[in-house]
Design a protein that fits this description.
By secondary structure, the chain is of the alpha/beta class. The chain has one domain: Nucleoside phosphorylase domain (Rossmann fold, 3-Layer(aba) Sandwich). It contains eight helices and nine strands. The protein has a five-stranded mixed beta barrel with strand order 5-8-7-6-9. Helix 5 links the parallel strand 7 and strand 8. Helix 2 packs parallel to helix 6. It is globular. The mean pLDDT is 95. Its EC number is 2.4.2.3. Belongs to the PNP/UDP phosphorylase family.
Length: 233
């Protein structure tokens, strides 16, 4: 039995969108899904299931950070049979050419999180996206004329870093942007042999200092959502 999700068996679709913010989950359900119903309110982590183009699809908040998304991903997979986990989140640009509101597909996720270091006894593990979901996201974006960027992202345990300039060592090696969940999601998906992809929208830039508002992050990243919704089997 799930500790953190109160849904009954069969109430969660095999494909689920995972924003960090539960209010963004509610906005996605109310804006894009037909006949959505709420399957979870435990800890305020709202989850909904509805239909998109005739296919059942769910959306649920995960909170912030690798530990939080790892808990929800584990329970969604092992207790509810979820097969496709698609993170839809905001991120901060590490590169001049990665602009505000650009869409980034996370091919792989570098990280300063210690969870995989513990899991693999100090060895490095490279969490990567599912190829089929990645390929379908690229095809969907082309069909919808939505520009994409793709590459390595950085999953950080810190939001307020002590050394603001520390991002430059990652940008030097081509890392596109920073967020807080992808490495955890990709690792849990790989462990359970299911599919995962992070589709990210650039909400701010560590290079230029530009940023979007909190309300923008909650309700206006439509291109990212439209790509993610098309990934349902």
């Amino acid at each position: 039995m799930s500790i953190h999700i109160e849904a009954k068996k069969g109430e969660i679709a095999e494909t689920i969108l995972l924003p960090g913010d539960p209010l963004r989950a509610q906005w996605i359900a109310e804006t894009f899904l037909d006949n959505p119903f709420c399957f979870n309110k435990v800890r305020g982590m709202l989850g909904f299931t509805g239909n998109y183009n005739g296919k059942p699809i769910s959306v649920m908040g995960t909170g912030m950070g690798v530990p939080s998304i790892s808990i929800y991903a584990h329970e969604l997979i092992t207790e509810y049979g979820v097969k496709n986990l698609i993170r839809v989140g905001s991120s901060g640009s590490y590169q001049k050419h990665v602009k505000i509101r650009d869409i980034v597909l996370a091919m792989a996720a570098s990280s300063n999180s210690g969870l995989n270091e513990q899991r693999f006894g100090g060895a490095d593990y490279a969490p990567t996206a599912d190829f089929e979901l990645f390929q379908k996201a690229v095809e969907t974006a082309k069909m919808k004329n939505i520009p994409l960027k793709a590459g390595n992202v950085f999953t950080s345990d810190e939001f307020y870093a002590d050394d603001f300039e520390s991002y430059k060592k990652w940008s030097k090696f081509g890392v596109l942007c920073v967020e807080m969940e992808t490495a955890g999601l990709y690792t849990i998906a790989a462990k359970h042999n299911v599919r995962a992809l992070s589709v990210l929208t650039i909400s701010d830039s560590l290079v230029t200092g530009e940023r979007t508002s909190a309300s923008d992050r909650e309700t206006t990243f439509k291109d990212m959502i439209e790509i993610a919704l098309e990934l349902a089997d």
